[in-house]
Amino acid sequence: MASDRKFRLVSEYGAAGDQPRAIKELTEAASHGQKQLCLVGVTGSGKTYTMAGFLENLQKPALVLTHNKTLAAQLYREFREFFPENAVEYFVSYYDYYQPEAYVPSSDTYIEKDSSINDEIDRLRLRATSSLLERNDVIIVSSVSCIYGLGSPEEYRHSLVLLEKGLNIERNDVIRQLLHIQYQRNDLDFSRGNFRVRGDTVEV
Question: What is the pTM of this model?
C-alpha cells in the first residue's frame, strides 16, 4: 500500500533570480495539462533547484532521465539534498563492465559475452523499484539506457515476499516462498541471494 507522503523541498536558500517565475510558469502549464515543457539555462543557473520547486508544487512521482551515469549521479545527490524526507532513488545500469559476444572474421575469433555487475548499484535499483510500490513521494533519477529491457511491474509484484513486524507466518511457508523467487538456502555462505535457517529462525 503506497503511503501518502507529500514532497517537501528543504533548502537554506530560497528561489532567486528567474527561478520563482520559471517555477510558477512550469507549474501553471502542467496544471493546465501541457505535456511538453522546456527549461533552459546555463550551467550553474540553478536548474535543479527550479525542477525541485516544480516537483514540490506538482506533488506527483517523477522520473528524471539524463544521458549518462555521471550526470545521473550528480542529480541524484542534489535531489536527495532537496528532498531528504522523500524517496529519491537511483536507477542506472548495474554493469561495471559489459562485453557483448562478438565475432572477428579477419582473425576467425569468437569473443564470449562477459560482464561485471556492481552489487551496490543493483541494490539501489531494487530499492527504487520497492519505493515505487510502497510510496507516492518518489523521484527516480536514471540514465536513458535504463528504460530498455525492464521487466513487467506485475511480474515483480508477484515475485515479492512481504514480511513485516508482527506478521504471523509459518517458517516453512517463508522458506518455500524464498525458494520460489530463486533465493538459495545456504547455511554457511550468508550473502546476497541466500538465506539460512537456524532452528526456528530464518535469516535473509
Answer: 0.74
DSSP secondary structure letter of residue 147: G
The partner residues of 201 in beta bridges, in order of sequence, read 198
As given in the structure block, the three cell numbers for residue 98 are: 559489459
Return the closest-CA partner of residue 73 out of 43, 103, 93: 93
**Predicted confidence band of residue 97 (pLDDT cuts 50, 70, 90):** low
> Residue 166, SS3?
coil
Contact criterion met (CB below 8 Å) for 48 and 75: yes
Reading the block at residue 66, the C-alpha cell is 539524463
Please, what is the Cα angle at 134 between 136 and 150, to 5 degrees? 95
Is it the case that residue 202 has pLDDT exceeding 80? yes
Distance CA 22, CA 181 (A): 47
Task: Tell me what pLDDT residue 150 has.
Answer: 67
Taking the C-alpha atoms of residue 19 and residue 15, their distance in angstroms, rounded to an integer, is: 6
Strands 138-143 and 62-66: parallel
The pLDDT score that the predictor gives to residue 84 is: 96
Q: Is the pLDDT of residue 2 over 60?
A: no
